[in-house]
Amino acid sequence: MSLLKVEDVHKRYGKEEVLKGVSFELERGETKVIIGPSGTGKSTLLRCINQLSPPEKGRVWLDGVEITHAHAKINDLRAQIGFVFQSFNLFSHLTALRNVRIGPIKVKGMSKEEATKLAMEELARVGLEDKADAYPAQLSGGQQQRVSIARAYAMRPKLILFDEPTSALDPELIGEVLEAMINLAKGGMTMLVVTHEMGFARAVADEIIFMEHGVIAEQGNPQQMFSAPKHKRTGEFLNKITELYGETD
Amino acid sequence: MVFDLAWLSPLAHGLILTLEITLTCIAIGIVFGILLALGRVYGGRLISIPCSIYIQVFRGTPLLVQLLMIYYGLPSWGISLSAFTSGILALGLNTAAYQAEYLRGAIQAVKGGQMMAARSLGMTLPQAIRYVILPQAFRIVIPSWSNELILMFKYSSIVFSVTLLDLMGVGKRIAARNFRYFEVFIVVALFYLALVFIITQLLRLLEKQVRIPGLGEHAEHR
Amino acid sequence: MLLRGTLINIELLLALLIVGLLVGTVIALLQVYGGRFFGTLASGYAWIFRSIPALVLLFLFYFGPSQFGVNVAPFLAATIALGLRSSAYQSQIFRGALQAIPNGQMMAARSLGMSRLQAIVSIIIPQAFRLSIAGWSNEYSSVVKDTTLAYVVGLNEVLRHARIIIDRHYDLAMLAYLAVALIFLVLTYAGNWSLGRLEARIRIPGLQIGGEL
Q1: Mean pLDDT in consecutive groups of 10 residues from the start of chain A, 249 residues
Q2: Which value, in Å, is the radius of gyration of the alpha carbons in chain B?
Q3: Is the residue at C63 inside a domain?
Q4: pLDDT grade for C50, boundaries at 50, 70 and 90
Q5: Could you tell me if B171 and B11 are in contact, meaning their C-beta atoms sit under 8 angstroms apart?
Q6: Which residues in A42-182 belong to E strands, given as ranges?
């Protein structure tokens, strides 16, 4: 049984249908990268998965449990899915440490001591244990995003969704975030990442999904996608972003 | 121009009553205001519409009318309240409406991403409101609520019209008896000025204590 | 009959708003352009008249002069007391607007060769007026309700009329007050609606302060 199954998801904003029937699966431990032109609904797809923006049509299963079901325990399910936002969305009134531990305490019922210990471990994992008492406004973009990753991972989710995690960052700060993400992938976390960072995709993606006009145009493993894409459009797009975003490792 | 220093003592007593009334009505206003604001923002139509109507009515009608309505009007419907109760009720219900509006603005000023992040962690809506939204909203609303506190302190003077002996009431009584309106009310004015100054400084200190770097008036997202 | 009283409230409202506007504008200009001495005086004036309760001001201006043999009519006393108070609030609104105008406006005006005075009159003040409208809406809402305070100095306004009705028909007390409340709801909304229309008509695209001042 796959960890995540997305079946025929449709989403409409106002008059426009942004997702026109998207289906795919994700196995445990896999990392898949979604790419495509802006506005093709990539971010929307992620929000449909954790129900921040429920789809009009289509179904999603997490480990066999249907998320889109009317009686689904959505908060429990969300606690099992991590989400990293493009704009970080750290809680502005909490220090880095408190940001990371509030989920385990309030949602999973952990004791404060246990949660603090866990949070410090996670902050150390992303290299920010010395910033534990800093407020988000005192951290750089790259640091905020790393705290955000720590916050998601501290919940020990089954899968983490990344919505263009480096798009809002200055170029010099992108590397540190990608490094944190690569470590997660190598550690066996199941990840679904919307990004333009092709270096990352080549390093850890098990599959690249190319979306255009609200549907999946093509999907395949990185070697195949880069060297011999089935559709011309896929090749064009990949070339363009490799030009722009280069090869990071 | 003559001012008998013996008058200072009763005036001070009046001031104490004024402060009592102000603090009580603000307390009512805060509690009730929070409920109204939450109802407005997070309640479904069934709750938010009555809250909205309440707020608009109490902000759209004069405070003096509200007070007289409670003290002189309710008896004609069979409900008789003491002057003190009428006073704090009128002031409290009135300030609750204003405080609710300010808090509502503050809640809506908290960026949408905060709620999304909270829900993504698996928090329920009440948890998200309590641990993420309100702590930030309270800090944002402090300037407005400080303002409201000072405003209520000044408006508490209307309770003299229902026979309460607050600073205003005492002042009027002394002035009338001795026909020294000018002197007495200059002193009353000085009392109010001094208290407004002190309260303002205290509130500023409070604001500094609870400030979070990057949150509130000094945030860059403005 | 209540409506006759309401007319007095409206007259008082207009009178005091005009006083407030004229004095308030002067105070604001002094605060921003008056140099240290006049600026501080102006700020002091504004603080004093904002910090003293309206009722105290009413008593001072109505009963005070009578002590020295001068009898002031309730309407005049109320106009001056509430007008000066409003001027203090309006000065803050106008001052905020003056300070919100980007520096570049003054620089451009001076670069053209305008004197400081010309720049202020032709460039700064017109923009400041437009920016102030939102704040004035708030001031209007406050002040329209404050006119009822003149009741305590004997002005023959709507609350006094209500009182007369109540003295004759005791059991109508609540209804009388409800009627007064309703009148003010209408006045408040009518006024705000008109100001909103005014703002829309003279709005210039791109010239706005985000939200309220």
Answers
A1: 92 89 93 86 90 90 90 87 91 91 90 95 95 93 95 94 93 93 93 90 90 88 82 81 63
A2: 21
A3: yes
A4: very high
A5: yes
A6: 57-62, 65-66, 81-84, 159-163
**In chain C, how many domains are there?**
1
The angle, 0 to 180 degrees and rounded to 10, between the axes of the packed helices C74-100 and C54-67 is: 140
Q: Is A38 on the interface with B (CB under 8 A)?
A: no
Distances in whole angstroms, Cα of residue A114 to Cα of each of A99, A117, A211, C31? 15, 5, 42, 57
A43 at B interface, C-beta within 8 A:
no
CATH number, domain containing residue C157: 1.10.3720.10
State CA A3 to chain mean position distance.
Answer: 15
Q: Which domain holds residue C133?
A: 2-202
Question: Does the residue B193 lie in any domain?
Answer: yes
- DSSP codes of every residue in C34-96: SHHHHHHHHHHHHHHHHHS-HHHHHHHHHHHHHHTT----HHHHHHHHHHHHHHHHHHHHHHH
Question: What sign does the dihedral C140-C145-C147-C152 (CA atoms) show?
Answer: negative
Give residue-wise pLDDT tens across range C82-116.
Answer: 999 999 999 999 999 998 888 888 878 877 777 78
- Considering the domain boundaries, does residue B15 fall inside one? yes
Query: What CATH number corresponds to the domain at position B70?
Result: 1.10.3720.10
Instruction: Judge if ipTM > 0.90.
Output: no
**Nearest C-alpha in A relative to B140:** A93
Q: Which of B119, B131, B212 is nearest residue A135 as measured by Cβ atoms? A: B212
CA end-to-end span of chain C: 39
Is the residue at B221 inside a domain?
A: no
Q: How far apart are CA A13 and CA A79, in angstroms?
A: 26
Assigned domain for B217 exists:
no
Tokens, residue C186: 């209408």
For residue B220, give how far its alpha carbon lies from the nearest alpha carbon of chain C (Å).
14
Query: Largest alpha-carbon pair distance within chain C?
Result: 71
**In whole angstroms, what is the distance from residue C172 CA to residue A33 CA?**
74
Q: What are phi and psi of A216, to 5 degrees?
A: -80, 120
Is the separation of the CB atoms in C43 and C107 below 8 Å? no
* CA nearest to A87 within chain B: B113
Domain spans in chain A, listed from the N-terminal domain onward: 26-54+66-80+157-249, 92-156
Nearest residue of A to residue B220, measured between CA atoms: A137
What integer pLDDT is reported at residue B218 of this predicted model? 42
Q: Do chains A and B touch, with touching meaning 3 or more CB–CB pairs less than 8 Å apart?
A: yes
Residues C155-197 pLDDT 10s: 888 888 888 888 888 888 888 889 999 999 998 888 888 888 8
A26-54+66-80+157-249 CATH, one of 3.40.50.20, 3.40.440.10, 3.40.630.30, 3.40.50.300: 3.40.50.300
Distance CA A126, CA B104 (A): 37
Rounded to whole angstroms, how far apart are CA atoms B124 and B80?
44
Residue C212 inside a domain? The answer is no
